[in-house]
Amino acid sequence: MEYLTSKGNKNYSFAEYIVLEEASEGKNDFYHGGLFAMEDGTKNHNNIVLNVGVSLRANKKPGCDIFIEGMKLEIEKEQFYVYPDLIYTCNDDLKGTGLLVKNPSIIVEVLSDSSSLRDRNIKHKYYLRNKSIQYYVLISQKEIYVECYSRIDSSPIWKYQTFETIDGLIEFDRLGFALSLATIYDSIEFAEA
User: Is 150 within the bounds of a domain?
Assistant: First the structure.
C-alpha cells in the first residue's frame, strides 16, 4: 500500500483522518498517523471476495452480518483503522447507517502484491490480538493457496492451517459452517507461469 504524503511524510491526527476520509473518493487505512491508500482490486480479487461473501451469507447465523470491502474496522481506538476485504460479525455494535465495525468474528483478506506484506505483518499482529476475532483468512489470488488462523477457544492461542488443493475445506467450527476452496476459486483464472 502506498503511503500518502502531504508535503513530506506528514502524520495525521485521527480528526484529520476522519475529515480526509469523508472527502476522499478512495479509502485509506489509518495507522498511528499514517495514511495508506487502498488500491483497486483485480478481477480475481473481486470474484474471490464475492464468492466468499455469498457463501458466508448463505450460512450466516441469525443476527450476524457480512460486509465486503466498504466497512471500516477499528483495531485500536483513534490509532488504527482498516478496510478488510470481508468482515463477518455477530455483534450489534452497528446501529443505523454506521460504517464502523469493532468486534468481528471473521476477517478475510485477499492478498495482492501491494497489500500482502501489511496483511501478513501489521494487520496480522493486531487482528490476532483482537479478542472477538475467531478466524483470520488470507487468500491468494494467484494460485490455490489459503491460510487460516483459528482461535483456540477464547485463548490467545491460534491454530494455523494452509490449504493448497481445490478439495480443501475450511471449517469454521465455532460458527457452525465450512467454506470450500472450490467455492472460493469458482470461476477464477490463474495466469500461466
Answer: yes
Query: 3-state DSSP call for residue 71?
Result: coil
Q: Which is more confidently placed, 141 or 114?
A: 141
pTM of the prediction? 0.87
Q: Using one digit for the tens of pLDDT, what is the confidence trace for 151-172?
A: 998 899 999 999 999 999 999 9
Residues 68 and 144 both lie in one domain: yes
User: Over the stretch 12-25, which tens digit does the pLDDT of each residue have?
Assistant: 888 888 888 888 77
The neighbouring-strand residues paired with 171 are 178
Mean pLDDT of 5-11: 56
How many CB atoms are closer than 10 A to CB 106?
A: 24
Whether the predicted pLDDT of 4 surpasses 60 = no
Determine contact, residues 105/89, Cβ cutoff 8 Å: yes
In a domain, 176, yes or no: yes
pLDDT given for residue 96 in this prediction: 52
CB 75 within 8 A of CB 132: no
Domain-located, residue 189: no
Which are the contacts of 32, defined by CB distance < 8 A and separation ≥ 6?
11, 79, 80
Could you tell me if 57 and 144 lie in one domain? Answer: yes
CB atoms within 10 A of CB 110: 26
CA distances from 49 to 30, 73, 111, 134 (A): 22, 17, 11, 19
Cβ(36)–Cβ(28) below 8 Å: yes
- Domain hosting 17: range is 1-38
Cell 469493532 -> residue: 102
